[in-house]
Amino acid sequence: MKWDEFSDWGKKISEWAQDYHLTVGDKPVRAQTEPGEVFNALPAHPPEQAQAIEDIFRDFEDIVMPGITHWQHPRFFAYFNSNASAPSVLAEFLASAIAPQCMLWQTSPAATEMETRMMDWLRQALDLPEEFAGVIQDSASSATLAAVLTMREKVLNWQGNRQGLFGQKPLRVYCSAEVHTSVDRAIWVAGIGQDNLVRVPIKGDWRGMDPAVLDRAIQADLDSGFQPAGVIMCVGGTGTGATDPIDECLKVAQKYGLYTHVDAAWAGSAMICPEYRHYWPGVDQADSIVFNPHKWLGVQFDCCAHFLKSPDDLVQTLAISPEFLKTHGKDGVINYSEWSVPLGRRFRALKLWFVIRAYGLEGLRERLRNHVNWSVDLHDKLAVEPDFQITTQPMWSLWTFRYAPEGHPDLDALNLRLVNAINDDGRIYLTQTRVDGDMTIRFQAGQFETTEDDVRMAYDVITEIARSLT
Ligand code: PLP
Q: 139 in ligand 1 pocket by Cβ < 6 Å?
């Protein structure tokens, strides 16, 4: 394909994309294919000769699309949403057309400087103090890894990268059992080891870490010759929206001089609304905070906002500067590749710029508030059904429930059957989680095109299918 044919196809594809988004609500949400169907439909060997874009596009529609789960569907109530709002898709199209690799200031000054400005817009939107500086990471997992590496280096007096962990006292990191598995992975990759990730028990409706137990656990580790390195807190955990008492946990961490990281991958977006900020009191005392605008802020995947009180600590941990990456003759420029594990970086700030301008913070707030309110309404409706139990209360727009008809001998199996039957039906999409060992079903609303009627429909689907099983 030549560039002078591009605009014809660009127009076709943008029309296709518009139509897709306008009609996606008519499709089953979860792909209804069986394992292996798409793989077997793809030729076993690559073509030797060029093929026409017409043919490739036809196969895209015939082979690929039936195997797609529609994350942009207005009744996608599973996992956490990964919104691709229209302005962010346009920005991504432009970024992919220019395709700059933004590892250094000089490899695209506009990308670096827009990133600095956009992260400061987000900082203001979340009402974080000016001392926080931000970087866009590819994922919350990467941000958490960067934070764990920083806590490791700080506690080892910046010698870990050089000397490794051999001969050191075992490092310890503290979190609750409700944090995302990206924390476990970061601990593995940082060489700290799963056994040194200390799970502090939770308490209360928010299912947050018990600060008094955290304090005792750190002291006991010090007494036993371990080396505490940091505390990782969650605000809006994946399973149930678990949220640690941030101010109290930060106080304990500070007492022992430990580095702190707050994972608010999903719920961080909601902090653009002042009325939700009571969920992270005192967060301005944290060293590192992560949230994903690619989840609930409408910014096409991927785009992860990572705030740091002292970026110098992160840069001291991750920066590596061979001659070929040096920028001579320009003082004071930021090279964001020194703030992240991967060297290469996409132009992600552009889609933040498009989205924040196209909706305005007030437009974004309105969407999030609607999601929370509609979800709470649904919760209230299901809560009064005698054969349903609410297993965790709404945290923003996320809560969990269980179908529990009286006398049923195996509620775990029944609820697993229910979630599968709902997803086979296709009108809505839900996922399950365990709450204190019991199989339960999650509900969360967060898709940008979801309406109140979409959320209401979930009530009909859930109750109708549940009762058809017993
Ligand atoms: N933290 C929480 C609370 C999450 O829910 C998720 C993903 O859903 C992650 C971290 C990982 O996010 P990412 O896919 O950006 O690495």
A: yes
